[in-house]
Amino acid sequence: MADAKTAEQEKEAVEAREAQAAAEAELDAFSPEALRKLLREMLLYRRFEEKAEEAYAIGKIGGFCHLHIGQEAVAAGAIAPLRDDDYVITAYREHTQALAKGMSPRGVMAELYGKKTGCSGGKGGSMHLFSVDRAFLGGHGIVGGQVPLAAGIGWAIKYRGEDRVCVCFMGDAAVNQGAFHEAMNMAAVWELPVIYVVENNEYGMGTAFSRVSATDIVQRSCAYDIPGSWVYGQDVLQVYKATESLAGEIRDGGGPRFLEVRTYRFKGHSMSDPVSGTYRSKDEVEEKADREDPIKIFRDRLFEAELLTQEELEAIDEEVQGEVDDAAQWAEEQPAPTEEDLYAHVYSQMNESGRLFLDGRERG
User: Fold this and answer.
1) Burial classification of residue 100, based on how many CB atoms lie within 10 Å of its CB (0-12 exposed, 13-18 middle, 19 or more buried)
2) Which of 56, 238, 338, 361 yields a CA-CA distance of 20 to 30 A from 77?
3) Backbone phi, then psi, for 296, in 5-degree steps?
4) What is 10-42 written as a DSSP string?
5) What mean pLDDT is predicted for residues 233-252?
């Protein structure tokens, strides 16, 4: 009996050493500067979302507002390995993804405030951030609405012969939309350069995904012969390595890829939704936030590897908090769109009377 116990202890010790060696090798693949940059990005997203939550609560932000708190490793890990000209298109929980693509906190915050200098001219708000310069083609408010658009982007890349990739983010609820299946089929048939990234945060609004699907999300890709995989979405390096690998496969002519990222949101579906108490318990949310916070997980790994000190962490956090505070103050001071701005971007050209007629004639 004692020998069996000793053997089991030795086995556990070997497994622990192997796991430690694998973790060290994973960190060794990145420079200390790159690792700290990933941490800084996630801290920026967290502080930005907290500021947005605060501004919404006091009426500075109107309309819908969906926060990404708890899912920061998805945005940081999936976008950091992309090239600047690679496209990203996503759903309505997209503040952090816009920042990850290099859009300025000022421009994004001003858009949330509905200001003219916002990235969408103050007309898009939280759900419709956009930047051609940064190859960020939206925020889209319709569940799954961006998925066929990503197929169109992929087709354009292929038609033009460009060395680019499109990453299409969506939530778990999108995979039950008809447009999702139609777009996946087209992407497979045409071998489009698209990575479909599903952020499975376990709930579609207030409905657990297990109540609306009999299979794991990653299995959906099999129906279209698209290679699929999944990663733990609270580990930024897992997400990074998976996306980097899939992007490389696509650039080598591999066709579309599918990635399920298993994550969790710490806030409600939107600002109008309670964090807990209706469809999930307070204990569940608190346990997830305590044990599976992606920022804490990554921070502690860097501490353990002696790649980060408490003083360095505090300096990074202070820096990003200042950047976010500056963005909010700047947004507060910006002008609102004018009445004339309401007519901009409606038609390609508007006549002086403010009306457009298909026959080309102006009428009084």
Assistant:
1) buried
2) 56
3) -65, -40
4) HHHHHHHHHHHHHHHHHHHTS-HHHHHHHHHHH
5) 98
Name residues whose C-beta falls within 8 Å of residue 43's C-beta, 6 or more positions apart in sequence. Answer: 295, 316, 317, 320
Place of tokens 């000190």: 309
**Distance in angstroms between the alpha carbons of the first and the last residue of the chain:** 99
* Cα(148)–Cα(109) distance, integer angstroms: 28
Q: How far is CA 359 from CA 283, 348, 353, 363, in A?
A: 63, 15, 15, 11
Q: Which distant-in-sequence residues (6+ apart) come within 8 Å of 100 by Cβ?
A: 41, 45, 75, 76, 78, 79, 80, 88
Q: Which domains does the chain have, with CATH numbers?
A: 32-343 (3.40.50.970)
Q: Phi/psi at 40 (nearest 5 deg)?
A: -60, -40
- b/e 178-215 (16+ beta carbons within 10 angstroms → b): ebbbebbebbbebebbbbbbbbbbbbbeeeebeeebee
Query: Which residue, chain included where needed, has tokens 């002696």?
Result: 306
User: Which pTM does this prediction carry?
Assistant: 0.88
DSSP single-letter state for residue 209: G
Cα–Cα distance, 219 to 209 (Å, whole number): 14
Amino acid identity for residue 270 in this structure = S
Q: pLDDT tens for residues 298-335?
A: 999 999 999 999 999 999 999 999 999 999 999 999 99
Q: Encode pLDDT of 190-210 as tens digits.
A: 999 999 999 999 888 888 888
The pLDDT, as a whole number, for residue 6 is 72
Confirm if 77 and 240 have CB atoms less than 8 A apart. yes
pLDDT value at position 111?
98
